[in-house]
Amino acid sequence: RLFFRLDVEANVAVPQLALAAGGLVVVDGRIDATSVAGRRACVMLLSSMDWAARCLRIPTTSRRYRDQFTINYRALFPDLAGRHYRVDIFEAAVQWTGSRWVNGERFDLSPEAEQAAQALLSAWDAASAALHAWSTGTKREVKGSEGVQLREAMAAFDVAWAAFERKYVTELIDIEAAARGLVLQAVKEDSKLRQMEQEPEGTVTEE
Hints:
single chain; mainly alpha; two-stranded antiparallel sheet; 4 strands
């Protein structure tokens, strides 16, 4: 009975996904995920993608790596095992810059993170093409050949998403740790300088 219900819902979820994909805002050839309208469209796309994937019974790529995130990042994923496509992760991929500024310091993300971002965008292009083929088909059945291609493309998208999410968030955590280290070092040096200024001349400070 559950599978039957999912099959019925898939006939609604997939058209909804196609509609959401068609509603994306594109600026200068790139998906807009920063403006109010663009971000809203991305949220609709990702929630529709998740719903369609569940209805099509597409296996979820393991998210066990989230267990290694810091508590602040784990809080962003209420369901550590679910897809939970976050728009800020998608934004990071489509609006890739390669660096982050923290406390006035620039930190560069790795080439591997950039490759993962490009792989995610390529996976979305493939999923979008498969979705277009399905929506322009004569039968538009989720169990037809176009439906099989769509399932495969959406599964590949989920694999690419998990790979990018893991690499990107892990590097953000490392950057934040490095930034805290710089702040602590600056505080330590400032404290040492103040101590030296307060000591009488000729006093030797032990290291």
